[in-house]
Design brief:
Length: 268
């Protein structure tokens, strides 16, 4: 690498872990014009800085190379695979089973942009067009599954899709999912039960005032806080909902690989 390093650049230890996931063809393939590590560094910069694809700094590979390779990675599911393996490693490092028995479901809304406005929905509470990202995390706050809908889609209507994804990635080990009052009702409970998951609604005690940490539910709020470090996730800037979902998996993979490397260094 001849350029000056950015704080977002992947470390040698992190690259040793992620490179096998990202290498979809031989390193010396004749159609590869730019080092794969530099393409990944540019993607890391985009996700953290939040800049448009077309204004990637000139000392990275061209923006269209980074975008097209990112789309290949997303379609191949490499970041989902990376996140799931990293989650298992971190769970084992914390004395947990590799696959979770409990999950937390919730959603976050993203302000739409001219690129995403066509598929956004009207958010009556915020009085704006937005997209909604529905997530499931384990009890350590690490991403299990997600999907993207317009903001006018109800949380309770997404339980079936989330439950199916969670059981698919965990091997049907999840037995209970903690949710907020937005998931109340027989329909979401039945949808979760169909996948072998008991839906447990954690409600705020009416007599309590101000900020209160809700049992289990606070974990996913912390995960939302982690995502705030990645400015590309502050709004829905993407034309494709698949790209929005992929960028969330990228963000969690970057967080988790840094933690795995830190644990490895500490234990060395």
């Amino acid at each position: 690498m001849e350029r000056k390093a950015y704080p977002t650049d992947v470390s040698d230890e992190e690259w040793a872990f992620v490179a096998p996931y990202l290498t979809l063809m031989k390193q010396d393939a004749p159609q590869r014009d730019y080092p794969l590590r530099e393409v990944f560094n540019a993607l890391r910069w985009i996700v953290r800085a939040g800049a448009p694809w077309r204004i990637i700094p000139h000392d990275f590979p061209p923006w269209h190379v980074v975008y097209e390779q990112t789309q290949r990675w997303i379609r191949a599911g490499v970041f989902e695979a990376m996140a799931h393996d990293l989650r298992a490693i971190l769970r084992l490092a914390h004395g947990r089973a590799a696959q979770p028995s409990a999950a937390i479901f919730d959603s976050r809304t993203l302000q739409s942009s001219p690129e995403s406005g066509g598929r956004a929905g009207y958010d009556g509470a915020k009085r704006r067009k937005r997209s909604k990202v529905h997530l499931a995390v384990d009890t350590l706050g690490h991403l299990l599954a997600l999907h993207v809908t317009p903001a006018n889609e109800q949380d309770r209507a997404q339980v079936a899709a989330l439950a199916q994804q969670v059981q698919a990635v965990s091997g049907k080990t999840v037995q209970v999912a903690y949710v907020d009052a937005g998931y109340t009702g027989a329909e979401p409970a039945e949808a979760a039960a169909a996948e072998g998951i008991q839906l447990e609604v954690v409600k705020l005690d009416a007599v309590k005032k101000g900020f209160v940490l809700l049992p289990k539910r606070w974990v996913i709020e912390r995960s939302f806080g982690w995502m705030a470090r990645f400015r590309r996730l502050a709004r829905d800037y993407e034309r494709l909902p698949e790209t929005v979902a992929g960028l969330h998996f990228i963000a969690f993979a970057l967080l988790m690989v840094a933690r795995v490397v830190q644990l490895a260094i500490q234990s060395a």
